[in-house]
Design goal:
Blueprint lengths: L7 H10 L2 E6 L13 H14 L5 E2 L21 H19 L3 E6 L5 H13 L3 E6 H8 L10 H11 L15 E3 L2 E5 L2 E4 L2 E4 L23 H35 L1
Helix pairs in contact: 2-6, 2-7, 3-4, 5-7, 6-7
Length: about 260
Amino acid sequence: MRLERMSWKDCEEYFKDHDMVILTTGSTENHGIHNPLGTDTMIPNKILELVEKQSDVLIAPTLPYGDADFHTEYTGTISIGSDLLEMVMERISDRLYDCGARHFVFLNGHGGNTHALSKVCRHLYKKGAVGTIFDWWTIAGKINPKWAGGHGAGQETAAMLYVDESLVQKDKIEDSTLKVFTPSLTASNAQTVNFKGVDIPVPRSNRLSSDNGWFGKDHPKYATYEWGKEMVEATADFLVEYMKEFQKMCQLKLKMSQKK
């Protein structure tokens, strides 16, 4: 059930009997030279398509921009930063709260968005609502550890093969070598360095870690359509089941508030 396809009267009727809404955040940013810039938006949108077939929860339009500041040295990346993302999502959530929403499911496609979304959830909690953040790639890796992956690597490439195989430029997949800064200090990931076996955060542009833009142990050359299909569909199924239980958790919160 899509908000943008409903009239205001349809929306009013929905909130007479329902109070849950799905808000999706993506990103427009580098995902390697083989994946499209909209990877973090298109994958959660595919999950939404699958969820819609199984659930009548209201789905708000997806925000295709997020906090991608670490990727801005890659051409085409558009970042609105964490503060603006928080403000936008808080404003949208507040309006939906006014309409009657009390259960907010934030389906998230980009790790950089999580901090801002956490603050929005705390804001909603103070108003008597409850928010939850569903980082799809993390959940997928928990459902099946074989699906866990890095940035623009096997996991996301497999998901994109399922979303739209024509958008993955397989002939441009290449190795990604993390950079060596000193003989004993190397990049262990995009935002960490390794010193004597210990990973230590060093926040920086991801371009200082990988020239081609992807990183992770799951090489994209091993990604397949079948992997992506199984993973994305399982994640969508999991979200549908989770929302049913999340509804009960919110009801419990309401009862606890009434006792105070």
